[in-house]
Predict the 3D structure of the following.
Amino acid sequence: MAIKNILFDLDGTLINSLPLIEKTFRRVFAEMQIPWNNGEVLKTIGLPLKQICEQFAGEKKDDCFALYQLYQREEHALLTRIYPGTLEALGELQNRGYTLGLVTSKRRVLVDEELIFTGLSDFFTISVTVNDTVNPKPEPDPVWRALELLKSRPEEAIYIGDSWYDLLSGQRAGVMTAGVTWGMAKREELIEYVPDLLFDTWDQILEYF
């Protein structure tokens, strides 16, 4: 069955938020005296913030969560940038008749703000955030929720993301998966999770679809 619906991850796929994420975690870890350990926390990008804070801050997870939100807000708009070519590619996919959806582990309030100030809000029919399912990525629930909202069968959809959390979530949900190499994970890391497709540029995505 032909693909009708294209689901995208947000951070590291559509927007380059790594500078913001790294700076925010560095500030939080320094204030809470959590060892930086060569940025080990950055490998968890794609998981919900509460889960990351529990892993690295333990009993002080609530303090970690609150501080991160505070510091992130301070420089959110300044350090968040959309990847070049993203808006043009999404517009072209829409013109070709595809329905676009967003599946992210980010909180709803931030997602809604980012979609507006980056100009992405015009392209997505639905969005699923960490607030919309009990079990986050890499479990299949967020992708299942997106399929439900789109009234789509798994074989009619593909999920495109930049991390192994995205790939596993899509695979477990029964949809095609594609990795992009311009985000958080390296190409060889994505290959280990055997995505159906691997893209290095937006032009390659447009060539495929």
